[in-house]
Design a protein that fits this description.
Layout (H helix, E strand, L loop, with lengths): L2 H6 L2 E5 L7 H5 L3 E7 L8 H10 L9 E6 L5 H20 L12 H21 L5
Length: 133
Amino acid sequence: MIVSKILSELTFKAVRSSGAGGQNVNKVASKVVLSFDLNQSEALSTEEKSFLESKLASRLTSENILILQCDEDRSQLKNKQIVIKRFLQIIEQGLKIPKSRKPTKIPKSAIKKRIKDKKNTSEIKKNRRKPSF
């Protein structure tokens, strides 16, 4: 994955933001919408694309386009920086290969301790009974 190449493949669109901001909201397009076409990307290998496609299935559109948006700040530039950072985090997490789980064995000492404890509780309960003559 080449970050600079991926960043060149991003497309941005500025949209009027909703919410608080007074008159500024009505005239300034501060919301930033980022879109990334996974199929057309040249920065990712085919294995990386298929891995991302499976990992990010819920976030992708039917055409395998990842769309992110940010309207946290009143500044368009800050929103663009926030959405780029968020995009890179999503891609890095999507490409992270999980460690394979190694099944562990129960130690022999733990098995012996469990059996010893069972015998001990059995003896205690046996001693509580009425004696038979």
